[in-house]
Amino acid sequence: MRASPMTEGMHGRRLTAAQYDVWLGRRLGAPGAAHHVAALVEIAGPVDAGRLADAVRAAVVEAGLHAAVRETRDGPRLVPPPDGPEVPVVDLRDEADPDAAARAWTEAERSAPAGPLAQAVLRTAGDRCLWYQRYDPVLLDCHAVPPLERRAARIYTALTEGTPAPPSPFPAPADVLAEEDAYRDSPDRTRDREHWTTLFADRPGRVGVGSGRVGGGGGTCSGDRGTVRCRAGDGAGRRRGGVPGAARRGA
Q1: Based on the structure, what is the number of domains in the chain?
Q2: Looking at the domain assignment, is residue 121 inside a domain?
Q3: Conformation bin of residue 19: beta by default, left when phi > 0, alpha when psi is -120 to 50
Q4: Residue 248 resides in a domain
Q5: 202-235: per-residue pLDDT in tens?
Q6: For residue range 57-70, what is the model confidence (pLDDT) as tens digits?
Q7: Residue 110: which domain range?
Q8: Distance, CA of 120 to CA of 52 (rounded, Å)
Q9: What pTM did the predictor assign?
Q10: Which of 26, 47, 90, 166 has the highest local Cβ count within 10 Å?
């Protein structure tokens, strides 16, 4: 597993263009801009909950998601906290109704003041766990949740088998920013800008960010609940979710 790419000092790193758009929408109070992304994956089978939490933690760090947006004199920056991401294991097996207790736990977490990231493994039975996830959309959108889940599954498999995890599929944030910088200074950007400014020439001008407090509705954007079925010794099994009736192989 490679180290976290968030190694740019106390001032953090600047946002990508897409991240900046989400942050700006939040500052301007755009409808839905204050929402968070949440997902719940049910894992059926003999799973080591502590090992799963370790795999989730490693995947989050690899993807550069362990960070919070801080406003600085140089604009918004993603700054990693001094401590690693917390992924608690919550054992609900002694509850009268573990499934109801899990639902109550997730609803309470979703209703709590939102931080940039929340992860937890809920143990509801000896052969069933729930992986709860919540993200600031500046860090991650709904489309990026499945790749992160697949990466956590691969890390879990490696931890179970005592082998190195495959190389991370996530690009380092510094590489993404470098690619954006190269595009910004390229003829492609000039050509693209001319196309879009001509196409939308009759639209209102640019909008800046004022110094006053801007309101905006909050909420949580929840994806489908998925189910992963594991056999003894499996690092992951079949995951159902997303497109109804679809199934794809976790690894």
Answers
A1: 1
A2: yes
A3: alpha
A4: no
A5: 988 776 655 444 344 445 545 545 544 444 444 4
A6: 999 999 989 899 99
A7: 13-168+220-231
A8: 10
A9: 0.75
A10: 47
